[in-house]
Specification:
Layout (H helix, E strand, L loop, with lengths): L11 H20 L3 H14 L3 E2 H7 L8 E6 L3 E6 L9 E7 L4 E12 L2 E9 L12 E8 L5 E6 L26 H4 L7 E4 L13 H13 L9 E7 L4 E3 L5 E4 L2 H15 L7 E7 L16 H12 L5 H9 L2 E5 L2 E2 L21 E4 L3 E2 L10 H13 L4 E3 L9 E2 L3 H5 L4 E6 L1 E2 L7 E4 H16 L1
Parallel strand pairs: 1-2, 4-13, 4-14, 14-20, 15-21, 16-18
Antiparallel strand pairs: 2-3, 3-13, 5-6, 5-10, 6-9, 7-8, 7-10, 11-12, 12-22, 16-20, 17-19
Helix pairs in contact: 1-11, 6-11
Length: about 450
């Protein structure tokens, strides 16, 4: 069974919709390169669409009713949106869940140092990356610095047209004979991902103060009013500099940083904003830390989602511990996460009958995991049949896939975590080339079909 190309179904009007959605998405991932930026922008978009902060509803003692829209934020790194349905929440929710963290390089807590009259920042990479892909790239810094007085300074360096960029040096080919004998995992090692940020020494009377590091600290003080010790309470992420761009002569694809998994997060959000008065309560949750195991207070393993559902049920006059358990068990979820797109340059790692292809639409992975389905959520056949019916009813172009050949590797998502509530869960997302590289690629047709598929699921 081979899925048809979605492009073949589009008339001129539909093509305009496809490209318009892609323009909105390109702006989102160009502006939002950290979890905090994604949450802030999502909250802004949600408020414009009529969503209210759940805390305001709680403080006002208001009652939630069918059609009401609320959102809740956790530590500036998670956000969850609810559109209250006609049925009691106890009957279950239709949930979209995506993650908004992406592989990157983080600054260490004591990062700034000088070596050979160069100022550098020491780093620790985050998530699964091929480290050699990050050298010789124009990079930017996004993040926050929390000061002892309680203020938080936001920092973005390297994104404006006249901003400087930073980067990690690579070894010149003329001296790389030994380096080229190493395996890919060792060509560039983690402790060598040091970011070059300056080379001019401070102008000072005292010779000991005439250092490049001192000059960088002077600039940071002037521009952001931060001291070296403020790095101890900072979250600064090194990411590729620049905007998402059209890819291909026909502009059919998008190249950008963070498609995994912001492409599913944004299309889930777009779908959520189109839902009005659903039968079952519609939910969209965007979470952190998936790339490192969904751990911690802002990962899917935390109790944030469960606690927020309890608060929503209380505001709707439905809460009891038993009803909360029933609501979670009766819920159905699409774990919105990306899949690997077939790449003709590397056909040997794919099994073509069970692989996602660019332009063939929304991708369902019945199971993920590694090799023998290890650490996998394996969706029930009955649930897969139900999903097929929903997609076909709404004319969604979709395909099914698994993540490469059985013994090649694999990967995981948040699906198994939500399945712990005994709810029905399946992975559903968008095919990506260059996954986990600084610049990833997706098809605009797949972005559109995913949004339509998420919307169909929420309305089912």
């Amino acid at each position: 069974m081979e899925a048809k190309l979605a492009w073949e179904n589009y008339d001129d009007a539909k093509m305009e919709e496809v490209f318009a959605l892609s323009e909105r998405y390109k702006k989102f991932i160009s502006d939002c390169k950290t979890e905090r930026e994604c949450v802030r922008e999502t909250a802004r978009i949600a408020r414009e669409a009529g969503y209210r902060d759940l805390n305001e509803v709680i403080e006002a003692g208001e009652t939630l009713k069918s059609g009401d829209k609320v959102y809740a934020i956790n530590m500036e790194k998670n956000i969850v949106l609810f559109c209250i349905g006609k049925q009691p929440i106890e009957k279950g929710m239709n949930i979209l869940g995506a993650h908004i963290d992406s592989p990157r390089i983080d600054l260490k807590q004591n990062p700034l140092y000088e070596d050979s009259s160069l100022a550098l920042l020491d780093t620790h990479y985050y998530g699964g990356i091929k480290k050699y892909q990050w050298v010789s790239q124009p990079l930017a810094i996004h993040g926050v610095v929390a000061k002892k007085d309680g203020s938080v300074v936001e920092i973005v360096i390297g994104e404006k047209e006249d901003d400087p960029v930073i980067g990690i040096s690579d070894l010149l080919i003329h001296l790389a004979q030994d380096q080229l004998q190493k395996t890919g995992a060792k060509v560039v090692e983690g402790e060598d991902l040091n970011v070059l940020v300056g080379s001019i020494p401070l102008k000072a009377e005292d010779e000991k103060e005439r250092t490049v590091k001192a000059n960088i600290l002077r600039l940071l003080k002037e521009l952001y009013d931060i001291e070296e010790e403020d790095f101890l309470s900072a979250e600064l992420e090194v990411v590729p500099a620049g905007k998402a761009r059209d890819y291909g002569f026909d502009r059919s694809m998008i190249m950008g940083y963070g498609h995994d998994d912001r492409v599913c997060a944004y299309t889930s959000l777009e779908a959520m904003l189109q839902v009005e008065h659903p039968e079952r309560t519609s939910v969209c949750i965007l979470v952190d830390k998936e790339e490192i195991g969904s751990v911690g207070a802002t990962g899917m393993c935390s109790r944030f989602f469960e606690n927020t559902v309890a608060e929503v049920m209380e505001c709707a006059g439905e809460y009891s511990e038993l009803k909360l358990r029933r609501a979670l068990t009766n819920s159905k979820m699409l774990s919105s996460d990306v899949s690997a797109a077939f790449d003709p340059n590397y056909p040997g790692v794919f099994e073509k009958k069970n692989t996602a292809f660019f332009g063939r639409g929304f991708v369902f992975n019945k199971y993920t995991g590694a090799r023998g389905k290890s650490s996998s959520n394996d969706a029930n056949a009955e649930y897969m049949a139900e999903i097929r019916a929903i997609m076909e009813k709404d004319g969604v172009c979709f395909q099914t896939a698994e993540l490469g050949k059985v013994d090649q590797g694999g990967g995981g998502t948040i699906a198994y975590i939500m399945a712990n509530y005994n709810m029905q869960v399946i992975d559903a997302g968008i095919a990506v080339q260059n996954m986990h590289a600084p610049w990833e690629v997706v098809s605009k047709a797949d972005v559109y079909e995913a949004m339509v598929g998420y919307r169909a699921f929420l309305k089912a």
